[in-house]
């Protein structure tokens, strides 16, 4: 049996489009490999994944939402820098998370206490205002 090769003719525009798409796939794979490298070197962030959504209109270069690092940088060099930045930021945020929880609990308790004190003052002022004036 012989196999036959079929030549397909593409226009220059189609060929450029296909090359561009191949480059995008390779760049996305490169970002994923970089994330794997960061995870291996740090032995942290094992549950993270990355999604590259290049956008010239984004106000951010990247962000972590849940367990996903979103990269909005429009070129691969900036995307790698953004990935590294967001990865380190994620690790730091995870490290200080217990302190943030504690601070939030303390703020909640202080707010409740301040509210009770304010209400006590309001009630006291109402009693003063409800008291009829004394004749002189």
Structure in words:
- There is one protein chain.
- The protein has 136 residues and is mainly α.
- It has a domain at 12-95: 2-Layer Sandwich (Zincin-like), CATH 3.30.2010.
- Helices cover 63% and strands 9% of the residues.
- The chain has helices at residues 12-42, 76-130; strands spanning 49-52, 62-65, 68-71.
- Strands 1-3-2 form a 3-stranded mixed beta sheet.
- A hairpin with a 2-residue loop joins strand 2 (62-65) and strand 3.
- Helix 1 (12-42) packs across helix 2.
- It is elongated.
- The mean pLDDT is 88.
Q: Mean of the pLDDT scores?
A: 88
Query: What's the helix count?
Result: 2
Shape: elongated
Low-confidence stretches: none
Helix-strand pattern: HEEEH
- Under CATH, the topology of the domain at 12-95 can be stated as Zincin-like
Name of the top-level CATH class of the domain at 12-95: Alpha Beta
Sketch the major β-sheet.
3 strands, mixed
